[in-house]
């Protein structure tokens, strides 16, 4: 097992016998799938904009997610462990690398080579993680890796025990210990795209030249070889690399273009097709990489959800499993421990959408005054005890519970027909307002406080006629208005018809 003294160059490796075919295990050196190699994949990433765009998009979004460590307390309860060893290793992998850079480089390696490696650096007080370039690692083994051989840039070969490396490898149909990168599947198409780029460079390099054929009349006297050469030299010296020049031909001569323009060559559609194919190979929604042909505000929001559920979700599950399998056993505390990327944070809507959803779910305020001030980075007000209490307004309290002055007695109820008439009138106004609003925007356009205020104002006189005091009428009308409008908002959030099959009870 290797012993590492510091985070610098690897030192003090105990000699480990290399695995060879004569020792019972075949020796496989990955860099060959078909006719490609690791250097080929790296060059494709460095020179092809479509591949760079998609791979970097995946790397940045995965690195942006925090990886949390939890303990499963029960089927319905879990505890986040901020100070767990695994959480500390991930958050501070080594003195020169942040968590973001660790995962960004991991995803770039996976995007290019479909293989990534972290070296476990064993220190007296903790475990460190250092990225090892995949093109410097050779896997030795058959069905499972028996050893990793690290070939340093200076040519020195260092054997590494599988227990001292975190290997994240994709599937490979040719060998169980090798991976087949998506770039290999895309390689022929990318070669075509590269040829197109070279053509475009040559096109602009030659754009000022006249690409075509100069024709002379049939009756024109025949030129001698010297005359032909002289005319050719004059033409090239005059119009080669001379933009904006106009050719003046001798009498009888005509010029016929013989080149394809960028539009005729369908250059831009082919570029877009390449990006679409690369995005599809990595399962990235097209609008996320700048292809907005059919993008609208509503479907972009759905594509954003699809990104974290169907695109990044499998990648996150893969990485979580590998970390738990290969890194968690190094920790002392392993009981019911698991990891999870913080995708839920990315899927949250705006603060307004969250507030409306929580109000529908809870039916009451959920924040204290000081908690609200904390969200605005304002200091807490400590001399007012009510700032640490959840204040219930009239439109979130029941007529008999939680309202100052409530006696617990049920106030008289107005006539059912009168209440139904008022509510139907409000529903008519609400329906007219929401009729032309797209379904996914209706919850945001439904002003709950406004409708509670208007409906309560319309209901209050009917409660007073039924014998309620002014305070009881206001309290009961507000509670009923809140209940009715909250149900309307809930239906809008769930995508249901907010006004069909509803009855009103006073």
Supply database-style keywords.
506 residues; 3-stranded antiparallel beta sheet; 11 strands; disordered N terminus
What's the tally of helices? Answer: 15
Overall morphology: flat
Please tally the β strands and state the result: 11
Distance between the termini: 78 Å
Structural class: alpha+beta
Mean pLDDT, nearest integer? 77
Main beta sheet = 3 strands, antiparallel
| Biggest sheet, spatial arrangement of strands | 2-1-11
**What multimeric state do the chains show?**
single chain
Strand/helix succession: HHEEHHEEEEEEHEHEHHEHHHHHHH
State the low-pLDDT regions, or none.
1-35, 394-408
Helix fraction by DSSP (H/I, runs of at least 4): 40-55%
Share of β-strand residues = 5-15%
Radius of gyration: 35 Å
Account of the protein in words:
The protein contains 15 helices and eleven strands. With 506 residues, it is of the alpha+beta class. Among the domains are: 21-184, no CATH class; 212-258; 392-493, no CATH class. The strands form four sheets. A three-stranded antiparallel beta sheet has the order 2-1-11. Helix 14 packs antiparallel against helix 15. 23% of the residues are buried.
Secondary structure elements and their pairing?
Layout: H1 38-47, H2 49-64, E1 67-74, E2 77-80, H3 85-91, H4 99-113, E3 115-122, E4 127-132, E5 137-141, E6 145-151, E7 157-160, E8 165-169, H5 182-205, E9 212-215, H6 225-239, E10 254-257, H7 267-281, H8 297-326, E11 337-341, H9 343-347, H10 351-362, H11 369-375, H12 416-434, H13 442-445, H14 448-465, H15 470-493
Antiparallel strand pairs: 1-2, 1-11, 3-4, 3-8, 5-6, 6-7, 9-10
